[in-house]
Amino acid sequence: SERKAIRRQKAPALWRAMKRRALELKADPRLLPQSSLGKAVYATRSFAIGTTLMEFTGPRYHASEVHSNRWGEDDRFVQIDVDHYMGPSGGLDDLVNHSCHPNAGLRFTEDGVFLIAIRPIQAGDEVCWDYSTTLSNTAFYMRCQCGVPQCRQVIGDFAFLEPELQEHYRALNLVPTYLRNAAGATKVAQDQTLAA
What are 67-97's pLDDT values in tens digits? Predict the structure, then answer.
């Protein structure tokens, strides 16, 4: 897109570094190892906390265009604001799985949506993020199968995360603008409870 082309011209060194990092994860999605959840993204080298791992990209869809009965490759949407979702890109960003104890998270900036290491990542580690950090006022939920000791059993709206976990993600700057306000997140949860 034109926005990406302008961004590449402004910061060619950053763009080259991002492309190298994507190659350091797994360059060919067809060759990705399988996890218990299907295809997954694994690090091929170590990454320090704060390292930008990749940019999430894809077409933008209004919430009314995203149906809740999608599965598999048709269910690779990320909520990017209250009324919009980013659709599948066809790249590695589509294959990063959820974990209730993730080693990465999405950071929303003026320049895009980036996957950032939030814990040290070693070569061979699966790269995961918490899907609940972007979900707001949705009817979406799914049974979690991440298998970590901290597993919540369900992936759903940010408002339903424990307040301490919400604050943890806010402190790491992994909560998009539309979810940053604690009162707003609580109101969303209350509205959903009243509507149920």
Answer: 664 544 556 788 998 888 899 888 889 989 9
DSSP string, the chain: -HHHHHHHHH-HHHHHHHHHHHHHH-S-GGGPPEETTEE--B-SS-B-TT-EEEEE---EEEGGGS-TT--GGG---EEEETTEEE---SSGGGGPEE-SS-SEEEEEETTEEEEEESS-B-TTPBPEE-GGGS--S-S--EE-----TT--SEE--GGGS-HHHHHHHHHTT-S-HHHH-HHHHHHHHHHHHHH-
CA-CA distance, 78 to 42, in Å (whole number)?
20
- In the chain the first and final C-alpha atoms are separated, in Å, by 41
Q: Please tell me the least confidently modeled range out of 110-119, 121-130, 171-180, 182-191.
A: 182-191
Distance set, CA 38 to CA 30, 45, 98, 105, 169 (Å): 12, 21, 12, 20, 26
**The overall pTM is greater than 0.90:** no
Per the CB < 8 A criterion, the answer to whether 77 and 57 are in contact is no
